[in-house]
Amino acid sequence: MPEEMRTYWHTASHILAQAVKRLYPECRLAIGPATSEGFYYDFDREKPFVKEELDLIEAEMKRITEEDLPIGRFALPFAEALKWAADNGEQYKEELIRELPEGCEISFYRQGEFTDLCAGPHLASTGLVKAVKLLSEGGSSGAYWRGSEKNRMLSRIYGVAFHKPKELAEYLERREEARKRDHNKLGRELKYFTTSDVIGQGLPLLMPKGAKAVQLLQRFVEDEEERRGYVLTKTPLMAKSDLYKLSGHWDHYKDGMFILGEEDDPYALRPMTCPFQFTIYNAEQHSYKDLPVRYSETSTLFRNEASGEMHGLIRVRQFTISEGHLVCTKDQLSEEFKGVADLAVFMMDALGIGGDISYRFSKWDKDNREKYIGDEETWEETQSIMRGIIDELGLDAEEADGEAAFYGPKLDIQFKNVYGKEDTIITIQIDFALAERFGMTYTDADGLKRRPIVIHRTSVGCYERTLALLIEKYNGALPLWLAPVQAAVLPISDRFGEYSESVHRALKNAGIRAELDSRSEKIGYKIREARMDRIPYILVIGEKEEAGLTVSVRSRHAGDEGEMKTLEIINRIKDETDRRVILASG
Amino acid sequence: MPEEMRTYWHTASHILAQAVKRLYPECRLAIGPATSEGFYYDFDREKPFVKEELDLIEAEMKRITEEDLPIGRFALPFAEALKWAADNGEQYKEELIRELPEGCEISFYRQGEFTDLCAGPHLASTGLVKAVKLLSEGGSSGAYWRGSEKNRMLSRIYGVAFHKPKELAEYLERREEARKRDHNKLGRELKYFTTSDVIGQGLPLLMPKGAKAVQLLQRFVEDEEERRGYVLTKTPLMAKSDLYKLSGHWDHYKDGMFILGEEDDPYALRPMTCPFQFTIYNAEQHSYKDLPVRYSETSTLFRNEASGEMHGLIRVRQFTISEGHLVCTKDQLSEEFKGVADLAVFMMDALGIGGDISYRFSKWDKDNREKYIGDEETWEETQSIMRGIIDELGLDAEEADGEAAFYGPKLDIQFKNVYGKEDTIITIQIDFALAERFGMTYTDADGLKRRPIVIHRTSVGCYERTLALLIEKYNGALPLWLAPVQAAVLPISDRFGEYSESVHRALKNAGIRAELDSRSEKIGYKIREARMDRIPYILVIGEKEEAGLTVSVRSRHAGDEGEMKTLEIINRIKDETDRRVILASG
Predict the structure, then answer these.
(1) Is residue B38 within 8 Å of B9, Cβ to Cβ?
(2) Which residues on neighbouring strands pair with residue B111, listed in sequence order?
(3) What is the pLDDT of residue A586?
(4) Taking CB atoms and an 8 Å limit, are A199 and B258 in contact across chains?
(5) Which of A215, A261, A361, A426 meets the CB 3.0–4.6 Å disulfide criterion with A413?
(6) Inter-residue contact A69 to A113 (CB < 8 Å)
(7) For chain A, what is the mean pLDDT?
(8) A460-476: per-residue pLDDT in tens?
(9) Which of A198, A240, A519 shows the shortest C-beta gap to B199?
(10) Chain A residue whose CA is closest to B222
(11) Is B218 in contact with B298 (CB distance < 8 Å)?
(12) Is residue B184 helix, strand or coil?
């Protein structure tokens, strides 16, 4: 997001807070930042804001922009700032001020009668904010103060603002389209997954269709990796804290981990597979002739995310991913890295999302050295090697400081979702540090023990997230080769039951995932249901089809294709599956 | 074990304790029961018994049998029994006495100068025990008092005794053979798995060979289940305690679970998949027309076992299993149960262990009603239905009281391992209780909501344990269709590298798991290594083979089979794999 829009949206959030204080002076202010696509403000209030109240607030915001109040900054000494908070009953602001260094001056912004603790910057006046819209249609949403369940639940109001009404209209239209495709809505409607309050947040359950799609993708990934020389591992999902102390996760990642067992000898669910695959490596002696070793595992990982951050299949507490580690010599690094990048691109192409990705080169942040392990020289050298490889691969990778893993720099593959929001789906990391920590060695040609280099990688994003992005990208119509049901056989009436069964059997025998809908429903109803279910091929069978040993084909991408010999459509579906053909839905 | 041997071994354990007290009077006695294959006695002593001490004890035991001391029972009132324990400094006996009802008489057994608290029965004299042998070759082993890590570690001495020296010799020979095949030894040597102190006990890591074998078996099971009408699920590995309270696990199984998160809102790792698949069932409406629904999942489960009970791949804290639940009407129960039993037998046959299994009908224990949910009438009715099905299937199932799950009776499939020890590998349970607890319903033909019945089942034992028993059964030589490497291509020298590579490629292209050993080692060495690795087909390539486009075949089951056309051996391996042929190793 350009800095200009951040200021614009931040000013809009102050206008929102001003409007709320005018209408509901009893509300306490928490925080109101700009986000990557608008802004929000959190208020402490007895009850959430309902739709009607938001309409009033939005109208008041328009009034404030029309009043075109000049916006000015001023600063107060620490004690006076605290007094301002106390006088105004703003306990959250007080808490924020108390966290600042005691000697410093505290910055405030004022517009008309409204003042807020704020580091700025802001626009010069409220009139510069034009097309404003509050987005919390169903009323305000709940958000814990500081994102922690232990704190009070606040009322959050989301909004957007644009320079021109036309931009706002376009934004709302895009948003509506994206919302229809939101996997968290569509994925439930199509019975890919469900959730349960009794089980807990961030722990989705894949229903048979979702589980089948993930199984297909998993096997495809495992088989492709095997073809490319990877060997499988299957390692435990928990370990004693000792392991994570060795890996550095205990110092650098503990907050994100689930801890179990007794306090003096805790176990933790694993957030990553690395230390487990390193243990496998260390269970054997290795010669330079055995390298590179390429380990992969369909691995379940756990992240102790805060409750407020959960979302469908995307922000979750448990997920499955093809995680792997390549152990190689320095000489092999470049070749191995290219192989890993090539595999990732192959996978993205197989999913039909090769055109939606971009690259990011995530580097360390020299000024926050305590966040990383390893010395400056190694970091800089590793980053320069990685830069070289990225250039050699001709990847147009944006550099991002401070986005590295704690043990090395990363190449991130970024995917832009239907909302236009960018997410990292794949990362490839070069690691010169952990082999040392884990005492990993190989015997070189000269008989000496040397440290190998490790590449951390995945070949496809985590499976739950990949399913979500495919649902959104394809509006629920997964590519044929991943579709849980590839073909539906629909007899027009019971009379054609026997022939329909034989067609269904022939499809199954050919390895096609086919369903027979023999219910005594009207054919129009059955077709509508199969279409709603996004089944790629609908095969209708009536008198004519039975007589000619044919089926009438309605395909998802081309609509009514007319009659076809059964064997012909079977071969076509098989061929399109094997070639992983991706056809736009009709 | 016949009751006669139990008495025999129990008397032998008293002879062991007597010998120890004669030699080391400072030892405190804990307990000394008969086991299914001998006996042990636990002693409290400053340090473990070393080999030399055990030799002395064994000699002293022989002396005691030669002395042929008469063994007599006597009883003491509660208070006097306590006094006996105090006078003799036997604090563990005192603890055991205090747990008995205060009014009762306490039973003792005496032989010569030695007396022990004991319910009996015993042989009439020590001379009846003939061939005695202590088994703790490396010295005594550690065992916590009452199996709890919180208690003091005791020194356990294991022993066996037989009526005839010949029986003992045979036993020791069998034991030696079994020990060589112990998966915990052989499985490590063959690099199927490893463990790590830093990761923790009961958490084995499958190395590439073990992970590959498990992947093959898993896919085979998933595919066969799909063919039989199962649908997949993929559900979270943890849930809030709320879920387990609903399922009854919190009340009946909490000690076996790993708890995480905060005390007031705990989460737990799942010990079973049932409540998760029930949640999937409840995420949709069901009509009687949709039933039965057959869910299956390759599911990872967790059991919080005590540290002392861990062993290789068999006693573990985390394991993966094909768990599934069939939801059906009462009318469908018998047919579905048969289908489940048939699938289990199909799997056992595929693994070649169909001849090693027996059946157990595990019933509730009326006298321990608090261990179960549901009323007596339902339990008795369910058990009688199950008895009927078992009879109809013609299964020769031994009845076992008190071995049911807390929610219903079970049919257990028992496997006898190389030590002759019986273990449950598969259980099938009928459950009339949990559908009620979870509010599961279906709409019947009359439009009314009814409760379905649930069958809990697995189709193959848990994968880690199955791998272990296959390693032991086949002495490490997994059946061809599960062998991680099916064929090794061994060129006699570098000169045949090109042709060897083409053979290797042809094998791979045919879907055979083949390895090429192109190291410049002597052919004898390479063959020996491949044989040690139990590779089913060793294909040697030299001048003659290159000229004739053949390979020289050494098969695991038949030894040297001479020259063969490459295509011929490829077709044979493919065919034997597809048919899952099991051939005894040569």
Answers:
(1) yes
(2) B71, B114
(3) 47
(4) no
(5) A426
(6) no
(7) 92
(8) 989 999 999 999 999 99
(9) A240
(10) A215
(11) yes
(12) helix
CB contact under 8 A, A258 and B258: no
| Span A496-506, average pLDDT | 96
Question: How many whole angstroms separate alpha carbon B388 and alpha carbon B381?
Answer: 11
- Give yes or no for residue B149 having a pLDDT over 80: no
Supply the Cα-derived Rg of chain A in whole angstroms. Answer: 29
Write the CATH number of the domain with boundaries B3-169: 3.30.980.10
Q: What pLDDT is recorded for position A308? A: 65
Please classify residue A252 by burial: count the beta carbons closer than 10 Å to its beta carbon, then call 0-12 exposed, 13-18 middle and 19+ buried.
Answer: middle
What percent of chain B has a predicted confidence (pLDDT) above 90? 73
- The count of C-alpha atoms lying within 13 angstroms of the C-alpha of A19, restricted to the half-sphere facing its C-beta, is 27
Contact across the interface for A233 and B242, Cβ inside 8 Å: no
pLDDT at B407: 82
Contact (CB<8Å) A211/B199 = no
What are the residue ranges spanned by the domains of chain A?
3-169, 219-235+271-470, 487-578
Question: Which CATH homologous superfamily contains domain B219-235+271-470?
Answer: Bira Bifunctional Protein; Domain 2 (3.30.930.10)
What number is the average pLDDT over the span A404-421? 84
pLDDT tens-place string over residues B518-558: 998 999 999 999 999 999 999 999 999 999 999 999 999 99
pLDDT for the residue numbered B586: 47
Total Cβ atoms within 10 A of residue B202: 23
Considering the four listed CATH numbers 3.40.640.10, 1.20.1250.20, 3.40.50.800, 3.40.50.150, the one that applies to the domain covering A487-578 is 3.40.50.800
Interval B105-115: pLDDT, tens: 899 999 999 99
Q: Chain A neighbours among B 277-296 (CB < 8 Å)? A: 279-280, 283-284, 289, 295
CB A479 within 8 A of CB A580: yes
Of A359, A358, A366, the C-alpha closest to A383 is A366
Question: Across the interface, do B232 and A243 touch by the CB < 8 Å criterion?
Answer: no
Of the pLDDT bands very low, low, confident and very high (cuts 50, 70, 90), residue A1 is low
C-beta atoms of B283 and A205 within 8 A: yes
Report the C-alpha gap between A440 and A285 in whole angstroms: 10
Q: Answer yes or no: are the C-beta atoms of A235 and A279 closer than 8 Å.
A: yes
Q: Tell me what pLDDT residue B251 has.
A: 84
**pLDDT surpasses 90 at A381:** no
Residue B218 at interface with chain A, using a CB cutoff of 8 Å? no
Say how far apart CA A99 and CA B49 lie, in whole Å. 62
Give me the residue label for tokens 């067609």: A503
Amino acid at B305: E
Q: What's the whole-number mean pLDDT along residues B451-465?
A: 94
Torsion sign over Cα A503, A509, A512, A515: positive
Q: Which of A39, A44, A10, A11 is nearest to A27 (CA)?
A: A44
Is the predicted pLDDT of residue A214 greater than 90, yes or no?
Answer: yes
Sequence-distant (6+) residues with CB within 8 A of B523 are: B490, B492, B493, B540, B542
Q: How many alpha carbons lie under 13 Å from residue A28 in its C-beta half-sphere?
A: 20
- CA quadruple B280, B281, B287, B290: dihedral, nearest 10: 80
A513 touches A483 (CB < 8 A): yes
Instruction: Please check whether residue A318 touches B, CB under 8 A.
Output: yes
- Return d(Cα A530, Cα A538) in angstroms, integer: 7
Q: What is the pLDDT of residue B250?
A: 86
The torsion of the CA quartet B292, B298, B304, B305, rounded to 10 degrees, works out to 100
Nearest CA in chain A to B214: A234
What residue in B sits closest to A301 (Cα-Cα)?
B237
